[in-house]
Amino acid sequence: MRKLPALIVATTVLAAVALPPASAARPATQAHTKPYGTAAAVVAEPPTYDATPLKSYAAFDANQAVAVDAKYFYAVNNQTITKHDRRTGEPLLQFAGDKDGPIIHMDSGMVLGDKLYAVHSN
Known about the structure:
- This protein is mostly beta strands.
- The protein has strands at 13-18, 32-36, 39-43, 50-56, 65-68, 72-76, 80-85, 91-96, 106-112, 115-120.
- Helix content is 0%, strand content 47%.
- It has a four-stranded antiparallel beta sheet with strand order 5-6-7-8, with no helix packed on it. Strands 1-4 form a two-stranded antiparallel sheet.
- The protein is extended and about 55 Å long.
């Protein structure tokens, strides 16, 4: 595998999410009251959705997070990010930080536009 540039990371499980049409949203009458301090607050029940997994891949280093774009998914681990082909799951590239830092614990990732962002907490 080739090394990725500094901030590349991820992996994924692809899922289809069935969202109800807007007309199926719960009406406001299904809100309930919940005591908060001395006054009562109205809290709406959040909607729930069903999801059906379409594919899953055994990604060897997807221990922290996954980020996805149109063609690839990125497995994020503490010090590595591996780029995988989204159709086959095959690993294509990998960024690996030095064992002695400065990257110690990457724990999240996302693709925005054409850039992959990873979050590092130390």
